[in-house]
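The pair is quoted verbatim underneath.

:::
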Amino acid sequence: MRPDRKATPVAVAVFVLQTAGSGVAVYGIPIYIAAFLRSGTVSAAGLSLASTGFFVVGALTGPLFARLGRRRPNLVMLGAVMGGTAAITAMAVRPTTIVVIAAFSTLGAVFSGGLVVVGTIVLVRVFDGRPTAGMALATSGSSAGGILVSPVLALLLTTQAAVTRSFLAIAAGFLVVGCGALALGSWATARTSPAPPPAVPASPVPLRRHWPLIAAFSLVSASQLGSTSYIVATGLSRDFTGAGLAVSVATAAAVASRWIGSAGIRRLGLRRWTTASFCAQAVGVALVGVAPYGWVLFLGAVLIGQSLGITILIRSQVIVELFGIDDFAGKFARFQTWTSLGSAAGPLLLGQIYSTTRDYVLAYLALFVLNAVAVPFLLPWMRTPRPRPWRTDELRHPDRSSI
C-alpha cells in the first residue's frame, strides 16, 4: 500500500460499493425470481429471459463504462448507483415482464460495468496495480454481497404482500449505502496524490493476440457459474443434509481465497498461482458432479469458490502485467466482456444438458471438460517471459535498454 495510507478509504469504499451492488444484483437475482414466481406477476419464461439479459448486457456495456470512467470514475459510479436504484424501484412500481427484463439488464450493466470495471480501474490506479491486501479487501465485495446482503433481501421478500414495499426499501437502502461509499471514496481520492506510472511500458499488442488466455478465463468462468448455479439443486436431488448451504460455503471460500491468494501470488507468482487455482476448480467441479456424500459436495464447493475469488482478484493483475496501467481501462473492460459472456454460457449449458438427460453427473462432466480444456490455454502465457521493469539508468539512456 502507498506510504501515506490514504488508499485504505478507497479500498473500503469500493468494497462497500461492490458488496451492495453484488447483493442487490448478482445474488439478488435468484431472490427476485422467487418473489415474482410466488406472486405470479411474471412468467418463468420472462424471468429466464431477464436473467440472460442481466449477464449479456453486463458483459457488453463494460467497455463503454471503461471509456466513461477514465476521467471521472466517481461520477460514473454515482450514475451506476442511481441506475440500480431506479431499476429496483421500477420493479416495485410496475412488475411486468418488460419492466423486469429492463430492470435486470440495467442491474447487470451498472454492476458489471459501473461498479466492477470502473471500481477496479480506481483500485489499480491507487494501488499501482500491485496484488495488495487492499485490493483483496475491495474485490471481496463481489462475493461478500452473497453473505451480507442476500439474507436481508430474502427476509424482505418473504411474503407476497410485502413485495412492493420491500423492493422500495431495497432501493432506498442501496441508494443510501452507495452514496455513502462514494462520498468516502471521493474524499479519499481528492486528498491522495496521483500515483506515479508503473515502470512497465504499455504494450502496443492488441488484446486479441492473447486469445488463448481470454479463452482460458472464459471457459473457467463458464464452469464456475454453471457449477455454482446448480450446486444446491444437485445436493437436494441426492438428499444431502444442509445442501442449501453449499452456495454460502462457496461464497465464503471465494472471500477467503482473495486474502490467501494475495500472499500466494507474492510467493509463487501470478502465473503459477492462477494455474493451480484453475486446476483445483476442475477437481471441485468433478467432486460436485459425482458427490456420493454431503461432505464431498461441500469440498467441491470450497474448491470452486476459491477459484471464483482468485479469478476476480487476478484479472486486473493479468491485464496490468500484459499492458501496464496506461492501457488498463480499455483492455480490462474488453477482457471482462469475454469472461462475462463465458459466465452467461455456463448455467445455460448445464441446464440444457440436465433438461435433456436428467442426469447431474453428465451435466457436471461437461463443465469439468470445459475447465480441463481451459488449463492448456494458459501455457502460452506461462511460457511468455514476464515484462522486466525499466531501470532508472535505462530511462536516462534508452539506447542501453535491453528490453
Notes: Residues 285 and 368 are 6 Å apart (CA to CA).
